[in-house]
Amino acid sequence: MYSEKVMDHFEHPRNVGEIENASGVGTVGNAKCGDIMRMYLDIDDKGVIRDCKFKTFGCGAAVATSSMATELVKGKTVQEALQVTNKAVMEALDGLPPVKVHCSLLAEEAIHAALWDYAQKHGIKIEGLEKPKSDIHEGEEDEEEEY
């Protein structure tokens, strides 16, 4: 069962679209479920996120977490945006079913991927930011499923 906030962000997502000439763009996916999330950031000279937009291909929870993530980083500094975790996204949405927690991880990774792109474009290092994974399951052992 989804919370009212999850349903609201799914049915009326905020900040959908692209930002032309974005300061940073990050794309992440989850090969296991097929969700793909792209986050666009417009960052001013003081390192403040003026605008944030997203495009997501995925389930309702993926759309809702993308929408909430954009709301959470708008107006924040790069360093503050880096602190937005999947847990913060889930809490802001009043929770997610256990099988949908990976959607909030995608949202966190999309923010990090866009920040990484911004840092690369500007030749800067963002303290605490590591190179993001393009697939949130990257590095995990492949688990063979038996049928």
Overall 3D geometry?
Answer: globular
Strand content: 15-25%
Rounded Rg: 15 Å
- Biggest beta sheet summary: 3 strands, antiparallel
Strands, total number: 3
Query: How much helix is in the residues?
Result: 25-40%
Mean pLDDT: 90
Order of H and E elements: HEEEHHHH
Derived from helix and strand composition plus strand pairing, the structural class reads alpha+beta
Which strand order spans the largest sheet, edge to edge or round the barrel?
A: 1-2-3
Terminal Cα separation, in Å? 28 Å
Low-confidence stretches: 141-147
Report the total helices: 5
Short summary of the structure?
The protein is an alpha+beta fold and 147 residues long.
Descriptive report:
One of its GO terms (molecular function) is iron-sulfur cluster binding. InterPro entries: NIF_FeS_clus_asmbl_NifU-like (IPR017787), NIF_FeS_clus_asmbl_NifU_N (IPR002871). Residues 1-122 form the NIF system FeS cluster assembly NifU N-terminal domain. It holds the Pfam family NifU_N. This is Fe-S cluster assembly scaffold protein NifU. The protein has 147 residues and is α+β, with helices and mostly antiparallel strands. It is 38% helix and 17% strand. It contains 5 helices and 3 strands. It has helices at 4-11, 60-73, 78-82, 86-92, 101-122, and strands at 24-30, 35-43, 49-57. The chain has a 3-stranded antiparallel beta sheet. It is globular and about 45 Å long. The protein starts with a helix and ends in a 25-residue tail after the last helix. The model is unreliable at 141-147 (pLDDT under 50).
